[in-house]
DNA sequence: TAGCTACCCTAATACAATTAGACAAATGCT
DNA sequence: AGCATTTGTCTAATTGTATTAGGGTAGCTA
């Protein structure tokens, strides 16, 4: 049989496309093999198991999002930067729902540490420098922003906002306004007294 | 063969327990049947398919959380109520991680409408009356709170906060402080001019 | 060009989901 | 109690996914 020219990157790419089409949870090694015109067992020349395929899609998504976030943040600060970062995630999820879901796939500690995951936290932290928060508030704010962005995107993706007439874009804008307001005006922790 | 005394409720209960032990994604009809000492095909006398089992666990979780939220909110208002509601979700997720994950399982529109899901939104809305927001801000705030609560809980559950020394409880408290502050002080939309 | 390695295949196993059909247990009617 | 019906469980069988073992060849390498 002729060589099919498969490698782990192509499997990952195909799995990512499939995820966006049919949902990350529906992605299966068999489906990927089928789409590439190879037999299931051939997968195992390139990946260890089906889980690795999902992990690779997760890593791809984290990296794509981090790259897009970095591009969106370039040259921006303050609320501008906040909005740019937030929209990067939301837009990515709209365009690549399967990959976005993949990005929430649970990685083991080492894989997570080596992934683009930490870059996201770093970018959020960088953005927050514009708000001049003392530690540990800055860390808390990183968590608040990550939580709200992810929560909003995932609820919206799940359709939770479709039952109320209010436009999801408008609520999103209001949410970002509110976060910006809160971070700018949140009572600062007492500075150490003299 | 003797009757095993199975019904849909017992299947659901068992599936929920299993979810908390091994993770919602790992719950399988076979595993539930195994635990109950029956054969796989016997499941189908009680449920239509494996998806229904997951849907039922999701509905159970939504209802348990709604009941606990209602109890926690009783007699509270303002920030007190906000904290009580938020902690209900976070505590439930800590105690029942599999069920919590199940509660995010995507339901079709009709099932979702008939579920306890809407109660959650109503309770959040009720709580927000203490903040006296005009519409559509109130709706936006419902979405903000839902997003932040869910986002925080799901990131924490996924271990995203374990890599930074800052205590997750402390960040949570700060987050709730910040939301309360934002909702109390957020610039109100202009009232209609005379 | 002989051989090595990588890659793809077929064959086979195991587990999950599901359907069909047999049969006994519970239920209910008379 | 006696009989019919419904219900709950089983065995057998099918399909799809994940995975291992082992064979054969394409294409590089010496």
Q: Describe it for me?
A:
The structure is a homodimer of 194-residue chains. With 194 residues, chain A is mainly α. The first copy, chain A, has a domain of 127 residues: Tetracycline Repressor, domain 2. In chain A, α3 packs parallel to α7. Chain A starts with 7 loop residues before the first helix and ends in a 9-residue tail after the last helix. The mean pLDDT of chain A is 95. Chains A and B meet through α6, α7, α8 and α9 of A and α6, α7, α8 and α9 of B. Chain B binds a DNA duplex (30 and 30 nucleotides) through α2. Chains A, B: GO terms for molecular function: DNA binding. Chains A, B: It comes from Nonomuraea glycinis. Chains A, B: Keywords: DNA-binding, Transcription, Transcription regulation. Chains A, B: This is TetR family transcriptional regulator.
């Amino acid at each position: 049989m002729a060589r099919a020219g498969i490698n782990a990157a192509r499997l990952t790419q195909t799995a990512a496309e499939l995820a966006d089409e049919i949902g990350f949870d529906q992605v299966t090694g068999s489906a990927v093999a089928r789409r590439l015109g190879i037999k299931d067992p051939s997968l195992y020349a390139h990946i260890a198991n089906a889980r690795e395929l999902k992990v690779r899609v997760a890593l791809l998504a984290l990296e794509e999002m981090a790259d897009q976030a970095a591009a969106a943040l370039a040259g921006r600060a303050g609320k501008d930067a906040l909005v740019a970062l937030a929209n990067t995630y939301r837009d990515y999820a709209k365009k690549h729902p399967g990959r976005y879901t993949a990005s929430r796939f649970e990685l083991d500690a080492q894989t997570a540490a080596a992934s683009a995951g930490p870059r996201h936290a770093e970018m959020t932290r960088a953005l927050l420098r514009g708000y001049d928060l003392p530690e540990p508030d800055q860390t808390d704010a990183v968590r608040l922003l990550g939580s709200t962005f992810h929560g909003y995107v995932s609820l919206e993706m799940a359709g939770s906002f479709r039952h109320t007439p209010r436009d999801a874009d408008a609520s999103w804008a209001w949410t970002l306004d509110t976060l910006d307001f809160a971070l700018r005006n949140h009572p600062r922790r007492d500075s150490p007294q003299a």
